UniProtKB/TrEMBL annotation:
Domain of life: Bacteria
Organism field: Chryseobacterium caseinilyticum
Name assigned to this protein: Uncharacterized protein
Length: 244
């Protein structure tokens, strides 16, 4: 894992903030078919310092013009917790196929009526569909958002140039549930998506976290779903602080 000093962290956040009104720089940084890899070791570092339902991933740019994602713990109010060093993930090309899994459980309830004469008078059955609880994300929604980003990301960036990129994200807020419960031998692939926000009535970027065996392990893990909730972009969400 690569790491940054506090000053390098601040500089990286500022570089990305400065890139937002520059479409040429954005096209250079956002390479198609690329992802961030988030490892258990990175999660453990911020998990022990996080005191919030969410944690933050700051987007930055290194001195070598590399787009990076930097996990940051939050305090109870939502402010960043200072660290002596910050471990980051690079935006790298996805080299292997990524499998999204989802187990659907349907409940069938059968009912029969036995009359007072000990004969069956009625019989039927009801099928109850699966219930989705956050932060598990329906596979179809995740795939639609990911493909929308692949097809329309630069159009979205161009549209945001109308206000000089001020509404382009600098960071994302990520629900800690499931992410902080990561098992040994498991990592997360962080993928950009694009989805419609009912609140803001427009398309907004998202980060989708997909669990997978890490590069150093052949361990397989049984899960109901390996695709988790959209991380919320800031701006427009939760502009409590600005690391950039």
């Amino acid at each position: 894992m690569e790491k940054l000093t506090p000053q390098q962290f601040s500089d990286a956040a500022s570089r990305w903030s400065d890139c937002r009104p520059d479409m040429i720089r954005i096209e250079q940084l956002f390479k198609q078919n690329s992802v961030f890899n988030l490892y258990k070791s990175q999660i453990e570092i911020i998990k022990n310092r996080n005191n919030n339902d969410d944690f933050c991933v700051q987007i930055g740019v290194t001195e070598n013009d590399e787009l990076i994602m930097i996990p940051v713990p939050l305090d109870a109010v939502g402010y960043p917790v200072s660290l002596s060093e910050y471990y980051y993930s690079s935006f790298e090309t996805l080299n292997e196929d990524l499998c999204l899994t989802e187990k659907l459980t349907y409940t069938v309830v059968k009912k029969s009526v036995l009359s007072t004469s000990m004969r069956t008078t009625d019989s039927d059955s009801d099928v109850f569909l699966p219930i989705y609880n956050k932060p598990v994300l329906r596979q179809e929604k995740a795939l639609d958002a990911i493909e929308s980003w692949q097809n329309n990301a630069f159009d979205w960036f161009y549209a945001e140039q109308a206000n000089e990129g001020r509404e382009i994200f600098t960071k994302f807020y990520v629900p800690k549930e499931k992410i902080f419960e990561v098992q040994e031998g498991v990592m997360f692939i962080s993928v950009f998506g694009l989805k419609f926000s009912e609140i803001y009535q427009k398309q907004l970027p998202a980060l989708i976290f997909i669990s997978a065996p890490d590069n150093l392990s052949n361990q397989s893990t049984a899960v109901d779903s390996n695709t988790f909730d959209f991380a919320k972009p800031c701006p427009p969400n939760g502009q409590i602080f600005d690391l950039g």
